[in-house]
Write a structure and sequence with these properties.
The chain has a single domain, classed as ACP-like (Non-ribosomal Peptide Synthetase Peptidyl Carrier Protein, Chain A, Orthogonal Bundle), CATH 1.10.1200. It has helices at about 1-15, 35-50, 60-65, 65-79. Helix content is about 55%, strand content about 0%.
Length: about 80
């Protein structure tokens, strides 16, 4: 799951021309790697790819700060 997220983020959402590696704990939001539109695109990708519904109230920094926090959130949603 982490590799799928990393690949999508790196290949689709990083439009700033950086070819840097996104670490599992990289702060995606505060670092400016992903903006609000990018978060919405990521949510749509997750819902389609992993078949998990994400309610709007769950789209928070707490859940989408890094690849690790996203994976943790998705594991909780699956249970």
């Amino acid at each position: 799951m982490k590799e799928t997220l990393r690949t999508y983020i790196t290949e689709t959402l990083l439009s700033n021309g950086l070819d840097s590696e996104v670490g599992e704990d990289s702060n995606l939001l505060l670092s400016g790697l992903i903006d609000s539109l990018g978060v919405m695109m990521l949510v749509q990708f997750i819902e389609e790819r992993f078949q998990i519904d994400i309610p709007p109230e769950d789209v928070t920094m707490e859940h989408f700060l890094s690849i690790n926090t996203i994976e943790s959130y998705l594991r909780q949603r699956r249970t």
